[in-house]
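User: Here's a chain of 126 residues. Predict its fold as tokens.
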Amino acid sequence: AGFIVARASVVDRLVTEVRYIRSTHDDLVGVLALPEVRRGRACGPVTLPNYRLVPDVRWILDAAQGEVGARSAKRRDTGVALFFADRKTLKRFGFADGTPPSTNAPDPGFERVGRVGHYAAYVSCP
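Assistant: Prediction complete.
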């Protein structure tokens, strides 16, 4: 019984972390399902600040390699740009080695079309 009481804070932190990760995934699915985001995909790829969530987005969208990318690798003039909308998510996923902070700011021509929890979506269509 003493062991369980002593480890209760560890279990609580684990539960909190699992809830956070689940909420970031659910919000990512939600922002990708916005009608404006779906329409914006016709104008270009979905991009994220860096490579960290590129595989998740490709999986969710069942998208080919060229349909989802990282702005840290290549900036695009059109398409859908996703951004981390809160400090914790930016800290967790936004900073990759060698990635400039400017990758989590919209380029000229991109307009905000929505936000779902941890993510904001911007679109640029000619």
